[in-house]
Amino acid sequence: MFGDRLISRFGPVDWLPRSCDLTPLDYFLWGYVKSLVYADKPQTLDHLEDNIRCVIADIRPQMLEKVIENWTSRLNYIRASRGSHMPEIIFKM
Fold first, then answer.
1. What InterPro entries would the database entry show (predicted)?
2. Within its chain, how far is the Cα of 16 from the centroid?
3. Which residues pair with 14 in a beta bridge?
4. CA-derived radius of gyration, the chain
5. CA-based nearest residue to 67, from 16, 18, 33
6. With left for phi above 0 and alpha for psi between -120 and 50, is residue 82 left, alpha or beta?
7. What is the pLDDT of residues 18-64, one digit of tens each?
């Protein structure tokens, strides 16, 4: 179905090791949006869609700048540690 576009452990493109935080969308945006979209437990598709639109519209550029700044810090730390385990680091928003 996805051909050579599938990234997985057993697909044509290997999933990167220790890659749970590869992009700001993965480590921040989807979880943030989901938590707000479902906060009032939408009961209809229209309500869900309205919530999604409102949450996305309320995301400000300053928030995204902080997310990118944090993500860049993560990448720099990973690069410096050569991908080794990082138990002592705590990343803040």
1. RNaseH_sf (IPR036397)
2. 15
3. 8
4. 17
5. 33
6. left
7. 555 566 677 788 889 999 999 999 999 999 999 999 999 999 999 98
